[in-house]
Design goal:
alpha+beta; 19% strand
């Protein structure tokens, strides 16, 4: 079935960053990267901007929306399904970039530094989908 709309994409994928910032181990490491990263999703179209230094997430349907979002240093573009599969640990980031399933504009090196941090969040993302009865989003 997939995500119904931009609000769902931002709630789940933006929500994983809110969870990360609240984590005692991951939060400070993520903030320490100082990265401002935009996720530009298609199918459905949605945007999430993560301001790591200030530990804030902006997006369609999230409090504050995108209007207050800072300018990103990098943008990752992909379908929402690929984004969801990534957070389930089912997408190899460098391989997906090589195969053009994920395109990156901006600071690729900073982005690749985030990958080890994100792996610790895969189980949390999957559990949230299951808890919300969103088995249709499981890969």
């Amino acid at each position: 079935m997939g995500f119904a709309n931009a609000d769902e994409v931002c709630t789940y994928i933006g929500g994983i960053f809110e969870t990360a910032f609240a984590d005692d181990e991951i939060g400070p490491k993520l903030a320490g990267t100082g990265i401002i990263l935009e996720f530009a999703f298609s199918e459905p179209e949605a945007h999430v901007v993560v301001d790591a230094a200030n530990q804030k997430v902006f997006g369609d349907g999230l409090p504050g929306g995108l209007d207050a979002a800072p300018t990103p240093g990098a943008t990752m573009s992909m379908t929402a399904d690929v984004g969801s599969a990534y957070w389930q640990g089912k997408v190899n980031l460098p391989m997906a970039m090589a195969k053009k399933k994920i395109s990156v504009d901006g600071n690729v090196a900073a982005l690749l530094k985030l990958a080890p941090l994100s792996k610790k969040l895969f189980p949390t993302y999957v559990e949230r989908l299951k808890a919300d009865g969103r088995d249709d989003l499981l890969v």
